[in-house]
Amino acid sequence: MSENVIFCFSGSGNCLDIARTIAKKLGDTDIVMMRREPAYTDASHARRVGFVFPCYAGGLPGRVEEFVSQIKVGDAYTFGVVSYAGYPGVGLRHIDRIHPLAYWTGISHQSACIWLMPHTLMVPPLSPERAQQRATKLAEKAAADILAGKRVDKHPPEPAFNKLESSVWPTLCKKKAKDFAVSYACVSCGQCARICPQGNIRLVDKKPVFGDNCIGCLSCLQFCPQQAINMGGPTLTRERWHNVHVEAADLMEKVIHID
Ligand SMILES: Cc1cc2nc3c(=O)[nH]c(=O)nc-3n(C[C@H](O)[C@H](O)[C@H](O)COP(=O)(O)O)c2cc1C
Questions:
Q1: Which CATH number covers residue 254?
Q2: pLDDT on residue 233
Q3: Number of domains in the chain
Q4: What letter does residue 185 receive in the DSSP assignment?
């Protein structure tokens, strides 16, 4: 049983990188990935329990809220960190309602939403190298605050626009997923099927076929070693991007333990 548990969702690696940076400072931490079924949901033994996740369309990705509702926290010190490209959205507030957060913060990073905008768009505008340095520094600061038991004495914000945006996202996302296409460059490696957190991709005649349960994380597209997956016109020419410290195999782990 580890002293700390961080429940993490990550589509293109930013949140896993942030979670690992925090875990390295805390020591003795399990990072439990909230992709498919989390390895465990009972963290009542832990001294500190954290949630690290990205903002998707102003809200939480996929089934994160459902997973968080299943987690047992005991009397741990709780913290939440949201990663986003432009604004943090309502995700922290939703988690705070389920497990009141002693400490929370947001860390902006490169945008993972390739069909909407290039990865270089973020607030503040920074080069990928500077964005990574800044995110690491902010994650280290969050870890120092968490170690010091710092508390944020107000609830995370819940802007009305983000509430609306996140409520329509699941429907839009399913529509958008109809734009998935696989090019001749596909070598049938099957990584997309293995990395999909929803189990939404199956191989038919060795080629990926997308089901109707996509949550838009784009792990399949961003990590495809052949850049063979597209999602509408803009992705045909846009540079792929994922966090520089995270490989596809990392996202497929169920639990990552950091001593
Ligand atoms: C489907 C999707 C929706 C997103 N929506 C938002 C958003 O509403 N606001 C925002 O600031 N960033 C948004 N982003 C950007 C991510 O929050 C940001 O890139 C984050 O760092 C990704 O974390 P990850 O690499 O751990 O998945 C979105 C990304 C994706 C893939």
A1: 3.40.50.360
A2: 94
A3: 2
A4: T
